[in-house]
Design brief:
The protein has 243 residues and is α/β, with parallel strands linked by helices. It is built from 10 helices and 8 strands. The chain is globular and about 50 Å long. The structure holds pyridoxal-5'-phosphate.
């Protein structure tokens, strides 16, 4: 088991490096986040001991359940799943960043809680660039007005944009949803909104990380290619997807 994880990790790092080389990018511009949904803490620890430190969870329960096994390690945890407002307080106990900010009401409630706690939080705005009805995320057209609206919440530090690309066996079908996130960023820059600069792109998963890096991803979120399929129960995956 341990050898599998280490082997897979090396492969993923090689894939990232190769993709950077091909697109003339610096390997240090692309971070790897381990998507650890359904992966037990003792397995995650193998990856941390191998030098990983950035983890992403989709559910508050999993953040909480794995916390005692992981909290003393040198890690940073992000929330990458759909966040219900009634879970905000609990999720904030464990994470330094929420990558799935996708509605005003969530921004408002986050700000309220963060003010109470006297702290700031990094956020990524999740955009539905694949236009799939089953996916969460803001419609691309609404991103600029959304940013202008949530800018007033000073506890929220807007770090970038996040998307779950359209997954398909054909590259040509996956590419547009990744490219669109970069184009949205360019449009945001053109607006020259005060305080909004250097936005990172969080995109690319096991299946499409090379494409995402070619399109400018700064943060790939990888689960299956590292931990294997067996942990990714279908019902868990569906948690991340709207009805
Ligand atoms: C599960 C998940 C990933 C990783 O997907 P894999 O295909 O397992 O690499 C990335 N982002 C989010 C939001 C996820 O839920």
């Amino acid at each position: 088991m341990k050898d599998d994880i280490l082997f897979n990790l090396k492969q993923v790092h090689d894939r990232i490096e190769n993709a950077c080389k091909i697109s003339g990018r610096n390997a240090s511009d692309v971070q790897l986040l381990l998507a650890t949904k359904t992966v037990p803490a003792e397995i995650i620890r193998i990856a941390i001991e191998a030098g990983e430190h950035l983890l992403g969870e989709n559910k508050m329960q999993e953040l909480r359940d794995k916390d005692s096994d992981l909290r003393h390690l040198n890690i940073e945890r992000h929330f990458i799943g759909h966040l219900q407002t009634n879970k905000i307080k609990d999720v904030l106990k464990y994470v330094t960043c929420i990558q799935s900010l996708d509605r005003i009401s969530l921004a408002q409630e986050l700000d309220k809680q963060l003010q109470k706690e006297g702290r700031n939080l990094d956020v990524f705005i999740q955009v539905n660039t694949s236009f799939e009805a089953s996916k969460f995320g803001l419609p691309p057209k609404e991103v600029i007005s959304f940013i202008k609206e949530i800018k007033k919440y000073e506890t929220l530090k807007i770090k970038g944009l996040m998307t779950i690309g359209l997954l398909d066996v054909e590259k040509e079908k996956m590419l547009p949803s990744l490219r669109l996130l970069r184009e949205i960023r360019d449009l945001i820059y053109q607006e020259e909104i005060e305080g909004i600069s250097d936005l990172k792109l969080s995109m690319g998963m096991s299946q499409d990380l090379e494409l995402a890096i070619a399109e400018g991803s700064n943060l790939v979120r990888v689960g299956t290619s590292i931990f294997g399929n067996r942990f990714l129960g279908k019902e868990i995956w569906n948690e991340n997807i709207a009805e």
